[in-house]
Amino acid sequence: MTDLWQNSMDHAVAAARRAGQVVQQALQDDRKVMTKSSSVDLVTQTDQRVEQLIIQSVKEKFPTHRFIGEESVAAGEPCVLTDDPTWIIDPIDGTTNFVHAFPFVAVSIGFSVNKQVEFGVVYSCLEDKMFTARRGRGAFCNGEPLQVSHQTDIKQSIIATEFGSSRDPEAVDKIFSSLRNVLCIPIHGVRGAGTAAVNMCLVASGCVEAYYETGIHVWDVAAGSLIVSEAGGVLMDTEGGEVDLMSRRIVAANNRTIAERIIREIDPFSPTRDDAPSKSSQ
Ligand SMILES: Nc1ncnc2c1ncn2[C@@H]1O[C@H](CO)[C@@H](O)[C@H]1OP(=O)(O)O
Ligand SMILES: [Mg+2]
Ligand SMILES: [Mg+2]
User: What pathway annotation does it carry (predicted)?
Assistant: First the structure.
């Protein structure tokens, strides 16, 4: 059977690799840092340049496809997922890492049709790891198949999470209380690569049992969500139930037992949805 979206996926892999080269090159240069929603929500010219490079190359090849790109949304483009083929792009996931040369920086490209992610590509460019997944066909890193951890005992687990970009004390309190509860189960440890996409690839690779976060955006997790599920993992909302990629809440785990155990410890909150009507950027 021919794969309807294979051409698009091949293009995404090539575009992510090219984008990664631009990111790596830019690490040698001075990085001019600007801010977006707050003084800790960073963006550089490289984020904007890489996003434009990817979008232009896709437009030339697939002129009818739509886009949700982090930096385009920040510039006022709508963030709406329709049934049309849509490229969901985070040109640099881990901009704070990029600015500080902390070595986990990823290009994340998800592709959805009928609101379902068909393929995901995460290129962790400093590690030179190309993570790919095609719906129903497994997840891979540099061509090698990925499999989540088999662990079902939360006390034998490592959990990944992040502190996010909100410095609103109420939100930070919720993040800390959840983290305290999870850590004191007790678990073996807490980790965070500084990029949601890489954290999800760590779940898919079996290096951590789960990743959870509130405050992420659809471009942070669209590609990673398919990489996790195709590696045998599960995705849930932080209050349980199905994940909604526009809700800014996610639990990605190796299995349901681990996901549900973490969810019991999470103090949930709901940031403004990515597709909220009045929202032009955040
Ligand atoms: N100060 C900050 N610390 C950590 N993550 C931040 C952040 N500001 C923005 N983020 C974004 O939040 C995501 C989840 O933590 C990260 O993958 C990162 O995506 P970004 O680099 O594409 O903005
Ligand atoms: Mg991001
Ligand atoms: Mg980004």
Answer: Polyol metabolism; myo-inositol biosynthesis; myo-inositol from D-glucose 6-phosphate: step 2/2
Residues 190-201 pLDDT 10s: 999 999 999 999
Q: Active site residue: 92, 187, 227, 250, which one?
A: 92
The H-or-E segment that residue 224 falls in is: helix 218-230
Instruction: Identify the bridge partners of residue 213 per DSSP, sorted by sequence position.
Output: 250
Inform me whether the pLDDT recorded for 78 exceeds 50: yes
Tell me the sheet residues that pair with 160: 191, 211
Residues 258 and 101: their CA atoms lie apart, in Å, by 33
Tell me how far the alpha carbon of residue 35 lies from the centroid of ligand 3, in angstroms: 12
Known active-site residue 70:
yes
Which value does ipTM take for this structure? 0.95
Catalytic residue among 71, 220, 230, 265: 220
Cα(82) to centroid of ligand 3, in Å? 22
Global confidence as pTM: 0.97
Q: In this predicted model, what pLDDT tens digit does every residue of 220-235 receive, in sequence order? A: 999 999 999 999 999 9
Mutate to test the pocket of ligand 1, among 122, 175, 195, 281 (most ligand atoms within 8 A of CB): 195
Does 95 participate in catalysis according to the annotation?
A: yes
**Residue 282, pLDDT score:** 44
Specify the amino acid at residue 7: N
What are the chain's domains?
Answer: 6-145 (3.30.540.10), 154-263 (3.40.190.80)
Give the C-alpha separation, 93 to 71, whole Å. Answer: 11
3-state secondary structure of 262: helix
- Measure the CA dihedral 45/51/54/55, to 10°: -130
Nearest of 125, 130, 141, 282 to residue 218 by alpha carbon: 282
pLDDT confidence of residue 2: 67
